[in-house]
Amino acid sequence: MARNDESRKRLLFLVQFSILLAIEAIVCFTPLGSIPIPPLVATLGMVPVIITAILLGIGPGAAMGFFAGLFSFIVWTFMPPSPLAFVFTPFYSVGAVSGNFWSLVICFVPRILVGVVAGVSFKLLNRASKNGPLVYGLSGVLGSLTNTFLVLGGIVLFFGQDYASVLGVSMDILLGLISGTILTNGIPEAVVSAVVAYAVCRPLRRYSRNPAVR
């Protein structure tokens, strides 16, 4: 009986992870991953990572973050949406400016850490407020902002001058643009992540009979 229960848990985990991975692929490879919030557009790429971390744990959340980074790498390498793709892939260049090892760091590390931060935040916050609504929202916000700050910070740290030259602006202006991006994109994405984390994760954890997600 115990072996059967363990097999069911493992199967349920694989099904849940696979569904979330499929959703991650959809939001990364299709326009469905963008939500217009006039005059802004919030992306949903980190939402499946956050949901995975809250529902399945820190390790699976980090794994989903890796896949998010991999999908992003594929997009920026083979379907680059802008000339700034070099900051996410070493296989893209603009004139004398090209990506390198740090491109992989920016593409993968922040996404992986989204799963870690969201999972750890939920675990710690949930100890103080069992299944409280703010626990989900705060975990979603912290996970989303992890990606925003690490990606933008990595761009400035590793590619600041090159990024500014491709944009045709000075470093001072670039820093202003980065700050504006945090406000115009990072904050709306964090709000969306908080709302979705609460709307999806709370009822699933509350009513699921699977001990792995309680």
Automatic annotation (TrEMBL):
GO molecular function: transmembrane transporter activity
Keyword Glycoprotein carried by entry: no
Residue stretches spanning the membrane: 35-56, 63-81, 101-122, 134-161, 173-200
Alphabetized UniProt keyword annotations: Membrane, Transmembrane, Transmembrane helix
InterPro entries: ECF_trnsprt_substrate-spec
KW Transmembrane helix (keyword) present: yes
Protein name according to UniProt: Uncharacterized membrane protein
Organism of derivation: Papillibacter cinnamivorans DSM 12816
